[in-house]
Specification:
two-stranded antiparallel ribbon; 44% helix; mainly alpha; 317 residues; Membrane-bound Lytic Murein Transglycosylase D, Chain A; three-stranded antiparallel sheet; Lysozyme
């Protein structure tokens, strides 16, 4: 008899919960910003994309983390599969039915991939010559470059930035003290959502058909060489540099970079604060070859707006 009493009680409880029509509480915009603003500042520090733009796009594209793509695929920016995506996928109705979208193991992966998506497509190259404080220029530039089809996309981003004072993230000095404070704010506020996590297993990725991994915070080439069983001198040669402390998310090639890029990507327009070495790392092209293709001496650097040839330049013959 006791068994049937337990079953009946459970049945009544289930009916009561069903009758209330309770659904999981949605994350508010304030909670969402608090959760991810430190990560946005980190990405700005690595890439030069304004933290305000990163955060506003995430808010808009993911419905403050409540969209199906964000919840089921950790995709906070609505990035579709595109080529050469070889990761997990999720299918979702968008402009067309059942379009292919990228699926990530963590939210952090989505934020990193968003930055790389912008950095490695020519149509967004001009944005990187804008100062990080020019969020309006970035918003209109993203719309003009075709990031979204919504005709008022730029205005929506600007409104989110100004309503939530996200521009303050762009103007504060980017340093470890700021990042620590932002992360402490996150921990001190009780939110019924998990905090983002960092990649535990070091995934190998491809750029220009060259394997690379992402550095964790304050790692050195020596740390990575020991972990992956690669000779340190070779690892330094692969990356055209000497051993030093790496920034979080920095690309580290674990095999020799190529002599040039593919034929459909012959030129890069230099952005603000870019160096020949950073361009070499961005495209997985050997640094000595970049100097050769551009008739430059070792140590020379491009100016913002300069064309940097990534393949042998026939026009210079």
């Amino acid at each position: 008899m006791r068994f049937y009493t337990v079953i009946f009680t459970a049945f009544l409880l289930g009916c009561a919960l069903s009758a209330t029509g309770q659904t999981p509480r949605k994350t508010t915009r304030e909670e969402y910003i608090l959760k991810y603003k430190a990560l946005s500042v980190r990405q700005m520090n690595i890439t030069g994309i304004p933290a305000s733009i990163i955060m506003a796009q995430a808010c808009l594209e993911s419905d403050n983390g409540n969209s199906r793509l964000a919840v089921e695929a950790n995709n906070h920016f609505g990035i579709k599969c595109h080529k050469p995506w070889d990761g997990d996928k999720i299918y979702h109705d968008d402009d067309k039915k059942q379009e292919c979208f990228r699926k990530y193991d963590t939210s952090e992966g989505s934020f990193f991939d968003h930055s790389e998506f912008l950095r490695n497509r020519d149509r967004y190259a001009a944005l990187f010559s804008l100062p990080a404080s020019d969020y309006k220029g970035w918003a209109h530039g993203l719309k003009k470059a075709g990031y979204a089809t919504n005709p008022v996309y730029a205005e929506l981003l600007i409104k989110i930035i100004e309503d939530n004072k996200l521009y303050e993230l762009d103007t504060e000095p980017v340093n470890e003290q700021l990042l620590a404070r932002l992360e402490l704010e996150q921990k001190q506020n009780i939110i019924e959502i998990d905090s983002y996590i960092f990649e535990v297993h070091r995934r190998q990725r491809l750029r220009n058909k060259v394997k690379y991994v992402l550095a964790r915070d304050r790692e050195s080439y020596k740390d990575i060489a020991i972990e992956l069983g690669i000779n340190l001198k070779k690892l330094e040669q692969y990356n055209d540099t000497n051993d030093h402390v790496l920034s979080y998310g920095e690309m580290v090639y674990i095999e020799k970079k190529k002599r040039s890029t593919a034929k459909d990507q012959p030129v890069h327009v230099a952005g603000r604060n870019e160096t020949m070495h950073s361009i070499s790392q961005r495209y997985a092209v050997r640094l000595d070859k970049l100097y050769e293709y551009n008739g430059m001496k070792k140590g020379q650097e491009p100016m913002p707006g300069d064309e940097v040839f990534l393949r042998k330049n026939k026009r210079r013959r």
